[in-house]
Amino acid sequence: MISLAGRDILHAWGKFVFTGVGLGLLIGVTLTMAGVYRGMVDDAKVLLDNSGADLWVVQQDTLGPYAESSSVYDDTYRTILGMDGVARAANVTYLTMQVRKGDSDVRAMVVGITPGGQGEPGQPGYLVAGRQITRGHYEAVADFATGFKLGDRIRIRRNGYTVVGLTRRMVSSGGDPMVFIPLKDAQEAQFLKDNDAIVRQRARTAVNPALNRPGVPGLLDAVIASQSTNPYVNAILVQIKPGRNPDQVAEPIRRWKRLTVYTRAQMEVILIGKLIATSAKQIAMFLVILAIVTAAIVAFIIYTMTMGKIREIAVLKLIGTRNRTIAGMILQQAMALGVIGFVVGKVAATFWAPIFPKYVLLEPGDAVRGFAVVMAICVLASVLAIRAALKIDPAEAISG
Length: 400
Known about the structure:
Elements lengths: L1 H10 L1 H39 L3 E4 L13 E2 L2 H6 L4 E16 L2 E10 L15 E2 L8 E5 L9 E4 L2 E9 L10 E5 H8 L4 H12 L12 H8 L5 E2 L1 E6 L5 H12 L2 E4 H12 L1 H31 L2 H9 L4 H30 L11 H27 L10
Parallel strand pairs: 4-9, 6-8
Antiparallel strand pairs: 1-11, 1-12, 2-10, 3-4, 3-11, 5-8, 6-9, 7-8
Helix pairs in contact: 1-11, 2-8, 2-9, 2-11, 2-12, 9-12, 11-12
């Protein structure tokens, strides 16, 4: 039975291999779609890993800095530092925007961090080149995916920054590369108004009768000065002391500071279960559609190949070949087609995955499951061809 299927394949091996390659490209697309979803989940986990935090302190009744807007006073971290179980705490801001370099721009997540040494919450975990931010203004550390190089001058809002360090795999949950700048600069950039808006706001303030009261000198100047500053951050990243339970450390902060605190497990639920849930469902729909299309194509190919050998199958029946042997031949051809298609698809997906703008993660487990699904599809798709072959009349071998 094995030699019978093999001889038939060798008889028209070019057509068979070419068909397998075409099927393989479709399987490669399916594996890539699964890799896109895995990449989105990995980006979310990498975002949490790179923050270096055990707890995320955000505005009350919000989902945190990644999935929803959050504003917390920037001096709150000092009181959190004094709470039981807290080892480190640092302010951080997040702003997704276009970062300009010369005449071009790059979509990136701008992260405002407190300049300091490695290991502080929010700091880039490691650098592939250069150094960390040490000054309070106009220095930046960029992810390698931005295309920036050491010494490049980039522009964020009205200010220019010098790239002093490069890191890798520091991305947002959406896959945008990160650019780190000093916290004060990030606070200014996040709420920066254009010059005309500032002039109009100051004029509106100046004509306010409540701010020009006699006997209250300096009140107007104080209000105008306060409008030029931003006392808010998006979140406070907290590292807890070794051996402490995150939930136990978080509870007093929630109770006494009237803030929402998320642990690592809770943030994963928000990012994966809420932020990318819609994209995950969309990818799942594509995978189902691709599986149906693959099954239909394999069924059509095997059926066409079987119908092209009506006379040969009739001869086999005429000389007494059992139906089980004929069915086995068709089944083996379908499975051989699936093996060729899967190998071509896996190689193609591995080759083109790095070219995608977003991270594509091809996991071995997905490849194993994908192979099992392809084999199952080939087996089911061969049923139609087997039924057609078993209905062939042996008389076809001697007819016209």
